[in-house]
Amino acid sequence: MGRHVGIVGVGQTHHARRRTDVSQAGLVREAVDRALADAKLSMDDIDTVVVATGPVLFAAVNQPEKWVVDAIGAQGKSVVRLTSGGGAGFAGALAGYYQVAGGFSERTLVVAYDKLSEGQLQYSISTLYDPFWGREFAVGIMGFSAAYWRARMDVLGHTEEAAAMVAAKNRKNAIANPYAHVKKEVSVDDVLNSKPLCWPIKLLDVPPISDGAAAIVLSSEKMAHHSTSRPAWIRGIAYCCEADNAPERSLMLSEPLAIASRQVYRAAGITNPRRQFDVVEVQEPYSCFELNYYESLGLCPPGQAAELVASGATQLDGDIPVNPSGGCMGANPIGAVGVIRLIEAATQVMGKNETHQIKDAKTALVQSGGGWANLRGCAVLSA
Amino acid sequence: MFSAPDSYPIDLPTFHSEINLPYTLTPGRAAGTFLAEVKNRRIVASRFASGQVVAPAQDFSSTGGEEPEAFVEAPHTGVLTAFTRVDGNVIGFIRLDGCDNDFPHRILADLGDLSIGQRVEAEWDDSVEQSVLAIKGFKPAPDAPVGTVQPLATTEEPLGVIPYAMKLDYEHAYGPYYGRMFDEIRENGRFMGVRSPGSDVALLPPREIDDVTHNRTGTWKACADTGTIRGCSIINMEVYGQTRKVPYVYAEIVLDGASTRMIHVIEIDSLEEAKEKIKPGTRVRAVWTDGERKGRVSDIERFEVIEG
C-alpha cells in the first residue's frame, strides 16, 4: 500500500455552452487559481502537475500541456498530460494519486478540461472507432450508447420511464449548483415527450455540450494540514479497461466497472455500498448510464435499477443521494467531468459544499469513465 | 506473437482514411486583440510587470504565468534571430525592436541573402484580416531605424472565435488478419473470421490472439451474411459527417457463425414502425452494393430485416 492521499483543495469554472472570452489555457487558469486558493497554496508549493483532456480532435490542440504550463505558471515542473476519453479527468486524478501515494510528490495538482464548443463532438468521437471496422457507420457515442440501452431495456428493465426519472432528478439538482449552466426543472413526461435523437435516447436524456475546467490539489498526509483540517481522503481508486469488440462480453454490465468497484470496495472496507455510502457522484452522459451504475456499483442487484430510482432513494433527500450536483445534466465539459465528480464528492465529505451539502456526509462514492462500458473507474472518499 | 519470415513483403497496399473537421477556436483576450488589430496594421504585444514585452500579445507570461499589465504596440521592425527553409518557403524568428521574445513568421527573401542579426521589416497584406498572415512576412531592411514599443490607449474588441479546419489523411496498414479479411470481402464477397481456440464460432474481425483465453486463435471460417441484432438505436439527429439520411437504424449485429458484433445500418421508413419491428433478437440479412466491391465493410450497403 502507498501513502495516504487526500484532496485538500478544489476549484472549477462556471461551466458554459461557449466561453469566447478565454482560450483553452485561460479556462484552465481559472480552475487552477480557484483550487490553489482553496488549498491556501501557490504554484510554488506544487511538486507535480497532471493535465487531463479529452481526445485532441475535440479542440484541435495537440500537446495542450505546453500551452497550459505557461498559463498556470508551472514552467519547469514535472508535467504529464493524460487523455482517456470521457474518463480523462478521473484517469488524471489516478495518475496524480499514484505520484503522491508512491512518495514521488508531496502535492500534485490535477487539472482537467475540455472546450467542446470549439469542435464537432459526435464526429470527433466517431474517430475513436476502428477505422477499418465500424467508423464509417459510427454516430459518436450516442448511437452506441442507445443501442446498449435498448438491449438492457428488454433484459434488465431499464425502461424509458426509469431513465426519464434519472434525467428529471439530475436536472432538478443542477438548479442549486452554482457551476452548472443548464438549470431548468423538467418532468418525467417532458423527458419522455422530448425529441428522439438516437432512440431510446431523447433530447432531455442528453447532457449539454460545455466548456469547462476543474482542478484538485492532492496532498500527502504530512502536508495536508497546511491546507485543511478535514481533507477528503482517497480510500480507494481504480480505473479499468477492456477492448471494444471482445467475444462473449455481455451488453448488460460493464465488466471494467465491476472489477474496479471490487478492488476499490476491498481497499476501502465497503461491504454494503447501499448502506455505507452517504452520497454518490456518477458520470451519466446519458440518463440510461446511471441505471447501469446503480447495478454495476452494487447499489442494487441487476434488474432493480428502475425500482431504485422510482423509490426516490437516489433523490437529494433519499437514503443514498446520487448526483446531488446534477451530474452531467448541469454541465458536461467531458474531459473535466471525472474531476468535477471528485470535487463534488470531496466537498460533501469535507462538509463544505456551499449549496447542496448532504447532512453528515462522511463517505462518498465517485464513478467516472469513457466509452459506453470500456473504460470505467471509481473511488471512495471519506473525511 | 506473430513473427513474419524475413521474406514476407512489408510494402503492402494500405487502407486510406480521412478525417475532416471544422473548428471554432477561441484565441482568448490577448491573441484575440492581436488578431482584431491587424486590420489597423498594428502589432499588439503584452507588457508584463517585469518589464518584459511579448509580441504577438499573450494572456500569460511564459516565465511565471502572470497576466499582462497592459497591451502595447510593437514596432514593425526587428532583427532576424533564426531562419530555415521548409517546402521552398523561408521561415524565421524575428525579435521585434523592444520585445523580449522571438516571433515566428515567413521571411520574404532567399536563404542566401539572409544572416542572423540582420534588420527586417514587416510587409503587410491588406487582403487578409483576422489572421497573423495579415503580415505577409518580414523582408530584409538594412537601413530600417530601430523602433520603439508604444502605449496603446484603446484597442479593438478581441475576436471571440476563429474558424479553423483540419483535413487529416491516413494510410493504415492492414496487417495479415485484416488483410485477408478485406481481400475475402473484395474477391469473394464473404466475411471471414478466425475460430476461437477449441470452438467453432469465429472472431470477426479476425485476430491473432483470443481476447478471453489469450491463446492463439484457430483456423479461418466464413461467416454468413445473415445475423441477429444484439443492440440497436434509431438515429434521428443530423450530425456532422453523417452519410445517411435520418431516420435510420444503427445496429450491432452478430453474423451467423461469429461471436462478435459488427456495426451497420438498416434503412427504415418511420421511427415509430422501426421501434416495433427492429429490436434485439431481430434477424437481418446483408444487402451488398451493386457496384464493384472495394474491400471495405461498406461493400455491404445496408442490412434489412428478414421478414417472418
What would you say this structure looks like, in words?
The complex is a heterodimer of chains A (383) and B (308). With 383 residues, chain A is α/β, with parallel strands linked by helices. Chain A folds into two domains: 5-121 and 210-224, Thiolase/Chalcone synthase (Peroxisomal Thiolase, Chain A, domain 1), CATH 3.40.47; 139-206 and 232-382, 3-Layer(aba) Sandwich (Peroxisomal Thiolase, Chain A, domain 1). Chain A is 35% helix and 19% strand. Chain A contains 13 helices and eleven strands. In chain A, the strands form two sheets. Chain A has a nine-stranded mixed beta sheet with strand order 3-2-4-7-1-8-11-10-9, sandwiched between helices. Chain A has a two-stranded antiparallel ribbon with strand order 5-6. In chain A, strand 2 (48-53), helix 2 and strand 3 form a beta-alpha-beta unit. Chain A is globular. Chain A starts with a strand and ends with a strand. Chain B has 308 residues and is mainly β. Chain B has two domains: 27-160; 169-305, no CATH class. Helix content of chain B is 10%, strand content 39%. Chain B is built from three helices and 19 strands. Chain B has helices at 28-37, 175-188, 271-277, and strands spanning 14-25, 43-47, 53-54, 70-74, 77-86, 89-96, 103-106, 119-124, 135-140, 150-151, 162-173, 191-195, 202-203, 220-223, 226-235, 248-255, 261-267, 283-288, 300-305. In chain B, the strands form five sheets. Chain B has a five-stranded antiparallel beta sheet with strand order 7-6-5-8-9, with no helix packed on it. A five-stranded antiparallel beta sheet of chain B has the order 17-16-15-18-19, with helices on one face. The chains are: A alpha/beta (383), B mainly beta (308). Chains A and B meet through helix 1, helix 2, helix 4, helix 5 and strand 5 of A and strand 1, helix 1, strand 11, strand 15 and strand 16 of B.
